Amino acid sequence: MGRYVVRRLLQMVPVFIGTTFLIFVMVYAVGDPVNAMFGDRAPDPATAAQLRAEFNLDKPLWQQYGLYMGKIFSGDFGNAFNGQPVTELMATAFPLTIRLTLVAVVIEIIVGLVLGVLTGLRRGRPVDSGVLMLTLVVISVPTFVTGTVFQYLLGVRWGLIAPAVSPAAPLGQLLLPGLVLALVSLAYVTRLTRTSIAENSRADYVRTAVAKGLPRRRVTVRHLLRNSLIPVVTFLGTDVGTLMAGALVTERIFNIHGVGFQLWQGIVRQNSPTVVGFVTVLVIVFLLANLLVDLLYAVLDPRIRYV
Amino acid sequence: MTGTPAIEGPDEAETLAGVESEAERARGKGPSSPGREPPERARSMWSDAWHDLRRNPVFLIAGLLIAFLVLISVWPGLIASRDPLSCRLGRSLDASSAGHWFGFDTQGCDVYTRVVYGARTSVTVGVCATLGVAVLGSVLGGLAGFFGGVWDAVLSRLTDIFFGIPMILGGLVFLSMTGSRSVWTVVAFIVLLGWPQVARIARGSVITAKQNDYVLAARALGAGNARMMTRHILPNAIAPVIVTATIALGTYIALEATLSFLGVGLQPPTVSWGADISAASQGMQFRNAPHILLYPAAALSLTVLAFIMLGDAVRDALDPKLR
Q1: Tell me, what's the pLDDT at A111?
Q2: How far apart are CA B44 and CA A97, in angstroms?
C-alpha cells in the first residue's frame, strides 16, 4: 500500500506540471498583464519595461513558469490587482467554497443513496421508472438554469429565502445553493446506486444473508449497500471536479464571495497571479481527490490489493 | 498504470456512458448472467440496435424533438417571421401579446424570435463540437491503442493532463483571454478540451478489439495495418465512441450555454440562450418579467434533454450487456 501511494504521487507530478503549464501558457501567452495594469492608457515604455523585468515577463515562457512555480512552492502566490497577496484572498475564499461544496456533497450522498436503494430494489416498477426519468430531466437542466429559476421562484416569487447569500454565508443560507450545486451529481449518484444495487441484489451473499434469517433492513444496509458503494465512491471522487466547476456558477448566481468570485475578479481585471494561483490550487485538489478515491477502493473492496 | 491493458482511472466517469461503464466494471468480470440468447438469424449489431431503437418510446420522442430542432435551426423562418436583432427599447420587458407570444426582453427584442433563433446556435455548437471531438478523439485514441508503445504512453499522459482541467474552469481561463468569440471559437475550445474523453474510450475499445481471435487471424493471413484497422477493428470498436459522443452532444450544448451565461461564451449579435438567460438574471431583471428568464431556460433544458435521451436510448441499444 505504501509503495502504491508513493508511485501514484510520483505519477501525479508530470500531470500536475503539464496541467499548470498549459494554464500558465494560456494566461501569459494570450493576455498581456502589464498592458492590463494600465487599462486603456498606453503605458510609458520605460515603466512597462521595468515592470516586465520585475515580474520576470521579459524572460522566455518556460523560465517564467519555473520561477513562478518555485515561488508558489515557497508560499508566494503574488499579489492581486489591489496589492493584496493572493494567499489572503484564498484564505477568505476557500473556506466559503468548501462549505458550499460540503453542503452539496452531503445532500448528494443522502438523497442519492436513498433514492438509489429504493429504485434499485424495485427495478421495473413505476417508482423506478419515474425516478429514472426524473434523473434524466435533472441531468439535462444545466446548473445555471436550476440556479436562476430556483432563485426566481423561491427567492423572488414566493419569498421563502433570501435571493442572495449574505457575506458571512451562514449554513442555512447555503442550503439552496448547495442543493442547486448537488442536483446533477445527485442524479448520477441515484443512477449509479440503482444499477449497482439491482445487480448485487441477486448475488449469492445476499441470498445467504436472507437465508440465515437476518432482518431485511440489515441485509440491505450492511451487506448489499456496502458492496454496492464502490462505483459510487469512485464517482464522488471524480465529481470533485464537476462540483468545483459548478461552484463557480452557483457562487455567481447567489453572490457568494468564494473561489468562483475571486477567480472571476482575477479574469475580469486580467490579474494573472490570481487566476493562475487559484486554478493551480484547484488542480491540486482535483488530483488529490482522484488519488484518494483510488486508495478508498482498497479499503472498500478487500479483493483489490495494491503492491 | 502504463502496464494495465484496459482504460483505468476514475475520471472517465464524467458522462452517462462513463458512469455506467464504471458500474459495469465494478460488477466484475465474474460469472456474467447470459441473458437472452440472440436470435438464430444472424443480424448485425447495427440492424439489431436499429430494431431496438424503433421500438423505444424514449428514442422516438427524442428523435422527433431533435428533428424539429434541426429543422428550425436550418430554417428558423418557418415558425418565426421576425428578425431576432430588431429591438426597440420602447417595448422593453413588455409582457406577451398577440403576435408576440413570449413578450419582450430588456432590450425590447421579441423573446419568441430569439428563442427560435437560439436553437441554431445551440445545435451548431453541439453538432460541430461533437463531430470534432469524436473524430480527433477516436483517431488519436485509436492509433494509440493500436500501436501501443511510446505513442500510447505519450497520449495517456496527455489525456491525464487534460482531465486535470474541468471544462468550465478551462473555459473561464482560456476563453476570457480571447478578444472576440464566435461560434467557432467556442467549438474549437470544446474540441481542444473534449477530445481526451473520447480518446480514452476509443483507446480502450481498440485494445479490446485488437485481442480478438479474428483480428489475430487477419494478421496471420497477412493483412496490413490499414486493412486491419478499417475492416476489422473499426467496426468492432466504434460503438462505445458513438455512445459517448451522442451523450456528450447534449452536455456540450449545456456547456456552451453555461459559458455564455458566465460571460465567456458567445457574444452579441450571436443569439444564444445562455447569453439571454445571463442578461435576464443580471441584477435580477427577471424579478418583474419572469418571461425573459423562463422561455430561453425551458428551450435550453428541453434541447439538452432531447439529446441526452437520445444518447441514453442509443446506449441501451448498442450495449448488449444491458439487454
Answers
A1: 93
A2: 51
Cα separation, B98 vs A211, in Å, equals: 68
Residue A17 lies in a domain: yes
Residue A307 counted as domain residue: no
pLDDT in tens, A210-244: 899 888 888 888 888 888 888 888 888 878 878 88
Distance (Å) from the alpha carbon of A217 to chain B's nearest alpha carbon = 22
Give the domain B48-76+104-322 fold: MetI-like fold (1.10.3720)
Residue A35 has what pLDDT? 64
A79 within some domain: no
Across chain A, which distance is largest between two alpha carbons, in Å?
Answer: 85
- The structural domain count of chain A equals 2
DSSP annotation of A85 reads B
* B212 C-beta neighbours (distance < 10 Å), count: 14
* C-alpha distance from B277 to closest chain A C-alpha (Å): 8
Domain region containing A61? 2-73
Q: Compute the distance between CA of residue B175 and CA of residue B182 in angstroms, rounded to an integer.
A: 11
Q: Which amino acid is at A282?
A: L
CA end-to-end distance (rounded Å), chain B: 32
Q: At what angle do helices B234-262 and B167-177 cross, to 10 degrees?
A: 60
CB atoms within 10 A of CB B143: 18
| Domain boundary pick from A11, A41, A73 | A73
Domain ranges for chain B = 48-76+104-322
Most B CBs within 10 A among A28, A108, A123, A144, hence the mutation to make, goes to: A144
Integer-rounded Cα Rg, in Å, for chain A is 24
